[in-house]
Amino acid sequence: MGHIDVVAERSFDEPVLVEGLPGVGLVGKIVVDHLVEALDMELYATVHCEALPAAAAYTGGDRAVRTPLRLYAAPEADLLVLQSDVPVSPDAAEEFAACIEGWFREESVTPLYVAGLPREGATDAAAADGREDGGEDDAAPASSLRGLAVGSGAALLDDVGVPAPESAGLISGPTGALLAHAMARDLPAVGLVVDVDPQFPDPAAARVVLEEAVEPITGVDVDVEALTAQAERIQRAKEQLAVQMRGRDDEAISQAQRLRMYQ
After folding, report:
1. Which domains does the chain have, with CATH numbers?
2. What's the pTM value of the predicted model, to 2 decimals?
């Protein structure tokens, strides 16, 4: 059974939690990693789940080892993030949701779950042009953001003007498991679906999530220019994880997908 070890007691007032589990485009992870760095967020709790890979994470300049799944906090902003250094299975995500459910209810936490929707034709277009990575000559179209909700999460989306999806779809992987848990347990939640490059880390899509959802919902001012200025560095840093994920079962990768009639 999973559990959470709180390492720094903090008080919150109806906080928002941003989920950053690795998924297609690594968009959620880029969002959360940027928030932790830009806001100098502090480690709030370590997450222990039997379904997680047995691994110990560490950071530069610090001898301490930590779990690969952690919660960071900016208490003054009533903001938390879920950061992960490893791909997470739906079972691990469900275990995490179950062990934190009581705390969600007690603190009135509203989670923002992030899923990338692969751009249609992106993979085929890159292959046709013989491209292996992004560049100035093959700039992707701007990402659009759509919002889903469970319970009172709908009011948050209405307040900040995030539109509903135009067509049917499905969110699978760990992020889908978290949203399914919220629906089954009647917990408020928001699902954010953004167009992403299906092959490579997508800092531009992460910027859209920050500017159009995280900032207006939380009221936190985040320097998103750094995501553009450091896009190449971010892509290189995340590429190894993206390669690891491409070799895993699809169930371990969070992603949104379109559903069509008679498919």
Report:
1. 3-255 (3.40.50.10900)
2. 0.86
